[in-house]
Predict the structure.
Amino acid sequence: MVLLRFSLLVGVATAFTSAPFAVRHQKNRNNNNGDNLFMFDATIAESVATAAAIPAVFVGTGSFLLSKEGEEEDEAPTTATSPTGDGEVDLYRDTLLRYAGYANEVGEAFAPLVPAWCVPASYGVAITYVCADTVDKTYKALNGQRYSESASLKCALIEGLDALIWQLAASVALPGYTIHQIVAITVTLLSAAGLDSSDSAIIGVLPTAIGLATIPFIVKPLDELAEVGMDVTLRKLWAPYLESCEI
């Protein structure tokens, strides 16, 4: 369902921004310039498809993994659990502070409208959040009662590294790249259609609006993609050691 909504959003944006271009394309064909314009049209289509390919794979894979997880949860007995499983609310993942990790997606969406320094600054906010969560997870592991005293430092560092890598992927790299490509695709289509902000204020804000509207549809799939990616790679390496150190 998430993938369907994501595809529909991209499709509507593509149709909206390419419609004027298609009209001019028909007019020019009638003026015997159709062959060159058709080749240009094909070039734009190829460029858009290339830009959308990797984000589509990311979001599509994450959506599939979410649907599989949902099926497993439906089959499993339901039990009441707290957000962290131990009665404690995670400040960085279960509260509104979690949205600080999405600052760079917002920055990417506003890239066509704001000064160049704003996008790197938004990444600075997101990475600050990532580092804070990493410190939090390391501190809790170090001062908790889960691991033996002799191994607590190593285990705390491993848990901190786990949090750092997951957050960089789920909060920064995957969604930031996806929104960047969505905005770039919209700008490309508008340019191909000969439309810019001088034509209408709506045209000027359209790439940003589409980027912002896309964010809610990609957050959960990309979180799940990062989670499963960690489970099948790095966590397989250090999970046995962490389990052996548990009290």
In short: Helices lie at 2-30, 34-75, 103-109, 118-143, 152-192, 201-231, 234-245. Residues 12-33, 78-85 have pLDDT under 50 and may be disordered. The longest helix spans residues 34-75. DSSP finds seven helices and no strands in the chain.
